[in-house]
Amino acid sequence: MRKVKWIFRAVLALIVAILLWYTLPQHDVVRITEVYNRITTVSWANRMFYASPDSGTAEGTDSRDVRFISAAFNDGSVTVYRNEDTGWIWPPYFKYDSSNLQAVASNLKGDKWVMVTRYGWRMPWLSIYPNAIRISEVSGPDYTYFPWLNLVIIALLLGLVFWVRAMWLQFWERMVDPAVANVQEAGDRTRGWFQRLFRR
Fold this sequence. Notes:
Helix content is 42%, strand content 23%.
């Protein structure tokens, strides 16, 4: 039973880690090479990685007019970001300025180095693109950013987990343990009564 409990905890921790990896903001230092719109087919396999049709531009349930930003890293590798409003859905970035962000990307296109704040993954085989949240010009390709916000969010989540665990242990100690002890005591009294009854 203990192994099952640890396996359950490990699977739960893995799911939380994957959700945080996808949701928390990440930062890429790149050069913007192209800014464009494209009609994109959203299928059952990648629908959950796009914004809802009500957030931003939508052509229909299966095809949408999605804004894209192509970029290149200092080592020559490339990536593509989508630029969609998140609205009030998950993740909670409350982004409504995708048109303005597209204009910023167009203005910074060329030899300028920028930091793209984004969330999500790039998976070409599923046509999944990270969503750009913010774009700002930086000093060069060696610019580094320390993820203070991510550390604060993770610390708050860990604090919440420890608080919930402490509350659960306190509840168990105050409510469950006494109830179990009372049931055991009643069972002992019942067994003692039957033993005395049959002993006679």
